[in-house]
Amino acid sequence: MEQYRNLELASILAAAFCFLYSLLAIGNIVMGVAAAAIILLLMRVLYIESALRELVAVEKARLERNGEWVPKREEN
Questions:
Q1: pLDDT at 3
Q2: From residue 25, how far is each of 14, 62, 67 by CA, in Å?
Q3: Phi and psi angles of residue 16, each rounded to the nearest 5 degrees, phi first
Q4: Averaged pLDDT, 31-41
Q5: What is the SS3 string spanning 21-52?
Q6: By percentage, how much of the chain surpasses pLDDT 90?
Q7: How many helices (H) and strands (E) does the chain have?
Q8: What average pLDDT does this structure show over 24-30?
Q9: Which pLDDT does position 2 carry in this prediction?
Q10: Is CB count within 10 Å lower at the N or C end of the chain?
Q11: At what angle do helices 29-66 and 2-21 cross, to 10 degrees?
């Protein structure tokens, strides 16, 4: 769970950086808010994706331990 907290902190810092950069370089607060929102949404998607991958790996390991895992067969 520590890696998810680090990812969330990184997304907040990246959003803050984008907001400040847009505000200082462009001088447009709307662009800063939009850039920060996009960064936060992208990081949230990455957070959810990595959490789902970990969940699938844990469930697969549990099924393999119980002998219930059936590998996917390739059809020709």
A1: 63
A2: 16, 52, 59
A3: -65, -40
A4: 78
A5: HHHHHHCCHHHHHHHHHHHHHHHHHHHHHHHH
A6: 0
A7: 2, 0
A8: 73
A9: 64
A10: C
A11: 160
